[in-house]
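pls ignore typos typing on phone
magnesium ion + seq
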Amino acid sequence: MRIGIDIDNVLSNFNEVLLNDYINHDKELGNNGIIKNNVYIRDMFNWPKDEEQQYYHDNIERIAKSLNVLENAPEYIRKLKEEGNEIYIISGRDNGEYSDPYKMTFDWLNKYNIVYDKVILTNAYNSLEKAKICLENDIDIMIDDIIKLVNGCKQCL
Ligand SMILES: [Mg+2]
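k done
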């Protein structure tokens, strides 16, 4: 079986690191912390939209490089591979936010000894792109945290 696996919020603690970074930056700004719940992290704080976008743009590469792997994820992937499955790491990191997304991703996967057969990066802001990549590469199972991807696969069929 060919298994596609996303990285951020599947293998990595992306949201946890982003939230902690935003909380710290909000303190530096002298603000009052989270003002909105039930929205994405980037919208939780009382920052002007353009300032938030600039902060994200200026810091997301540093944040992504600092992500930790989720507990036991490398061992489970190794087990899946040993059982004869192919592992395709498919992540929406080729989105213009990172200076060298492939190198950054290979470095991170190697750091945590994550085994894989192939790495494919897509543009996270195009919800159909990852779905198309899954279909083009005959992915049998895709493990992802984004519901839009699943809906995208349905649309592409
Ligand atoms: Mg993800």
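Helices lie at 14-28, 49-65, 73-82, 101-111, 127-136, 147-156. The beta strands are 2-5, 86-91, 118-121, 141-143. more later
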